[in-house]
Design brief:
single chain; mainly alpha; elongated
C-alpha cells in the first residue's frame, strides 16, 4: 500500500509537455479567428447572391433592371469566391502554425525552457497593420508633355 501511494505521488510530480500548446499561442488563435471571420463573410455573401438572383428573376427585362441585378449577383459571386480563398488560406496557416507550435513547444520543454512567441506575434501585428493600411495612390502632377530625347542626327 505504501509503495502504491509513493508511486502515485511521484508520478504526479513529473512534468509533462503540454498536450495542446496551440491554445496558448496567440498567432494560432489569430489564424483560427481569421478563418471564422472568413466563414461568416461567406455566409453573409451567399445571402446577398441569393437575394440578387431572386430580384433578377422578378425584375422586368424591358427597363434593364434584370441586367443590373445579374451584374450585382456576379460581383457578389466574385466576392464570395475571394472569401472562400481567404478561408482556405487561414485554415492552412492555422494548420501549419499548429505543427510549428507543437514542435517548438516540445523542443523548449526538452531544453527546460518556456516556449515564447512574443517577437513573432509583434512582427505579425506589424505586418497586419501594414496590410490593412490604406495605400494612397500618388498622383503624378500634370505637366508639359515630355519632349522626345535628342537623336544623334539633331545633335550634329
Amino acid at each position: 500500500m505504501l509503495i502504491l501511494l509513493t508511486s502515485v505521488c511521484s508520478s504526479g510530480c513529473v512534468k509533462h509537455a503540454e498536450p495542446n500548446p496551440e491554445y496558448k499561442d496567440r498567432l494560432y488563435l489569430e489564424f483560427v479567428n481569421e478563418s471564422k471571420n472568413a466563414q461568416k463573410n461567406i455566409e453573409d455573401t451567399k445571402k446577398i447572391v441569393e437575394a440578387e438572383m431572386a430580384s433578377s428573376e422578378k425584375a422586368p427585362a424591358q427597363i434593364g433592371m434584370k441586367k443590373a441585378f445579374i451584374a450585382r449577383a456576379d460581383h457578389a459571386q466574385n466576392v464570395l469566391e475571394s472569401y472562400r480563398q481567404q478561408e482556405k488560406y487561414w485554415k492552412i496557416r492555422a494548420e501549419d502554425r499548429l505543427g510549428y507550435v507543437r514542435r517548438e513547444n516540445l523542443k523548449a520543454f526538452n531544453a527546460g525552457k518556456e516556449f515564447n512567441d512574443q517577437k513573432e506575434f509583434e512582427q505579425y501585428q506589424l505586418e497586419k497593420r501594414l496590410r490593412q493600411a490604406r495605400r494612397k495612390a500618388v498622383k503624378k502632377p500634370e505637366s508639359e508633355p515630355e519632349k522626345p530625347a535628342k537623336t544623334a542626327e539633331k545633335a550634329e
